[in-house]
Amino acid sequence: MQLLAIDNFINNEHVPPIHDSYFDTFEPARGAPHAKIPNSSKDDVERAYEAAAAAFPGWSKTSRAERASILYRIADLIDARREEFAQAESKDQGKPVELARIVDIPRAASNFRFFAGKILHSLEEAGDLPGVGFSYTQRMPIGVAGLISPWNLPLYLLTWKIAPCIACGNTAVCKPSEFTSLTAYLLCSVLKEAGLPAGVVNMVFGTGMGAGQAIVEHPGIPLISFTGGTVTGSKISVTSAPLFKKLSLELGGKNANIVFADCDLNLAVSTSLKSSFSNQGEICLCGSRIFVERPLYESFLKGLIEGAKALKIGDPTKKDTNMGALVSKEHWDKVVGYIELGVQEGGKIEYGGRKPSSLEGDFKNGYFLEPTIISGLTPACRTMREEIFGPVVTIYAFDTEDEAVRLANDSEYGLSCSVWTENGRRARRVAGAIQAGTVWVNTWMARDLRMPFGGMKKSGVGREGGEHSLEFYSELKTICLAD
Ligand code: NAD
Fold it and tell me: What is the distance between the alpha carbons of residues 264 and 421, in angstroms, rounded to a whole number?
């Protein structure tokens, strides 16, 4: 079978990698190669950097209105090609196409629309100091940014970086995950069609150790926005520190989902099914540690198991499929390894744990895994402490509010948390005590792009979103005019 071959995108042109090296990427639902991806090297990164550096002086001087109008056009073009993007995202990543249709792709378009509006309407500071002078700030673009993204929400997370980066007048060298390059590739044609000048956004495809590392090491790239695993984030910090790069790190999580006995049980169960198993549990914000107040434990667990049984797993192109395939064989092995570890650590599999038996045809070779619920573990177990990043949750009963907060905070991560209660005072108390960048009360995954987003502890460094993205993607200068 002829595989789709993609190329790098540099200076608004599709160019093959300099050393003509490619690797296959797999379709997770069928476990078979479906595209050839450039295995870009340091030389390709250099070429992309040169294009981005050459484009910077012109782009950084464009008006905010000009930049915003291009961003709005990009958003409209993504919307117009939503189905094509959704199909590509699903084929490449394994997720249900319906999820890509309603979450990934529209949210990618709204990233551009939001930052177009944000840059148009944001105002810098100014202050009068009578008898001394008048000060004001000027927001300056920084230069060429390195934007490195993961495979779980490929287009959504890449555009979360590209949109504010170019809205602020920077240019970029982007590297999507080697597992999911297709929608980034489709985006290139959208950028060009929207009128983005050559060199403003360059896309270099390849591995983390190859192209990714070369971007981080490049002395001409002063800022890096990275979303991915905590171990990679740590390596990037070490490489960047002597170069004094501006870094934004959005890293892993092991998020708590705290369910109090006074919650709306139906809503807590139906939303917890989503926070546990959406996108096969491959969302950094998934609530993989479920803590339930003891009086509600049995009925919550029963509801969760019934809900998990009803989820349809298989052909990601079917509209009613709830769960697709995990992104790769390696990742499937890792997640299954954690389920085995959970059993060794004394856990009981309440539901799931295996490859579904209902798969037919080519899908039998896909990386599918049942939604899995494990009980009986203690919070010290590795299964309850390490990020699994798959459709696996642990469930544990607690007795008091203090204990729930202690359990939730007993983690080296601090990305997000959901709290389920109908008691408003408790909601405020618990939300205030939780060590996580985002706390949802009676909901999950609701996003307001004006709000800061990021993690505490090993879940990240810095915040993006709204004003915080402008802070990251620009330098603020204070200018003082004497009276
Ligand atoms: P990863 O760290 O393996 O890879 C992320 C990206 O970094 C990829 O593009 C990869 O090629 C690149 N990379 C790898 N090594 C590199 C290096 N040495 N230098 C430069 N780039 C390098 O992560 P992943 O497996 O793609 O994604 C899953 C992880 O991402 C999970 O831990 C998940 O929690 C996290 N994540 C976090 C958020 C967030 O907002 N906090 C969002 C999504 C995913």
Answer: 7
